[in-house]
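Re: weekly structure request thread

Next one in the queue (78 aa):
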Amino acid sequence: MENREKYIQAFVDVFGITEEDAVTAKYQEEKNWDSIGHMSLISTLEDSFDIMMDTADIIDFSSFEKGMEILKKYDVEF
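Done, posted below.
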């Protein structure tokens, strides 16, 4: 599975949304993307990509697009 597919799948699995909804997802606009859902997403992504995100990056992770920018800092290529 490619990194982009793994990334999208994390949103689908954690929030129970479609792939189409995943690519436009924003924090607190998705029904299940609250503080608990946020930490579940971060945990899933850290496991999927074998990384540990800094606290500042976890806080900044506010949308699908922003998440891709952040993950690039950890050498995750899309």
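Residues 12 and 18 are 6 Å apart (CA to CA). The mean pLDDT is 97.
Next request, please.
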